[in-house]
Amino acid sequence: MRTLKLAAAAALVLAVSACSKDGGSSGEAPASAPADAPAAAAPTDADKAAALAALPAPYNTGDLANGQSKFALCRSCHTITEGGPDLTGPNLHGVFGRKVGSRPGYPYSDVVKASSFTWDAEHLDKWLTDPRGFMPGTKMTFAGLKDPKDRIDLIAYLKVETGYKPAP
Ligand code: HEC
User: Fold this and answer.
1) Which of 43, 66, 116, 160 is the most buried (most CB within 10 A)?
2) pLDDT of residue 156
3) Residues near ligand 1 with C-beta < 6 Å?
């Protein structure tokens, strides 16, 4: 069952990257992903494939299956579902477009509290490469994800799974 689901997800990812190679002007592009779909409906694999295809390059070619497997490195400290609890690290739902260190009630380190950028793919890429290099003094004890392709896949996965909505 799990294998089947993974295979289906991989097939979708392949199908999506095949589409995006022919210029992105295909009539099948998910031009109007409903911006305010009811939050209660769990996104289907097709919704996720559409969300992936709508990401800016290079994230639209991200491999969600690999991103999911890299997220295993974060899972012990972070949840990503809406309303998920804070663990050692803060819940990451809605992190894209959120000001750094702004999850209510989470006890961030001073360096994070003193920062003022907004999380986007660029900042996350630097953070995930080397958290303590990017923000010396952070209490996120994660060594870093050194392979750029793994970071693309993980960021694509996080965008799809944390409710990121591209600007209209
Ligand atoms: C050992 C626990 C741990 C692991 C593993 C970990 N984190 Fe964190 N993370 C934290 C902590 C603690 C913070 C708060 C940092 C601070 O306040 O200095 C944090 C903060 C963050 C933030 C900033 C959130 C905000 O609200 O500003 C992001 C984004 C993040 N982590 C992503 C990740 C991702 C993605 C991974 C996996 C590649 C990961 N983390 C792995 C513990 C962890």
Assistant:
1) 160
2) 98
3) 73-74, 76-78, 88-90, 92, 95, 100-101, 103, 108-109, 112, 119, 124, 128, 138-142, 145
Domain assignment of residue 116, given as a range: 63-161
Q: Which of 59, 66, 69, 74 to mutate to test the pocket of ligand 1 (most atoms within 8 A of CB)?
A: 74
Q: Is residue 123 part of a domain?
A: yes
pLDDT band of residue 167 (cuts 50, 70, 90) is low
Distance CA 99, CA 79 (A): 18
CA of 99 from ligand 1 middle (Å) equals 14
41 falls within a domain: no
Position 56 in a domain: no
- Closest atom of ligand 1 to 108 CA is 17
Looking up residue 88, the CATH number of its domain turns out to be 1.10.760.10
Predicted confidence band of residue 165 (pLDDT cuts 50, 70, 90): confident
Taking alpha carbons only, the member of 67, 112, 114, 105 closest to residue 86 is 105
CA-to-CA separations, 82 to 19, 85, 153, 168, in angstroms, rounded: 30, 9, 21, 22
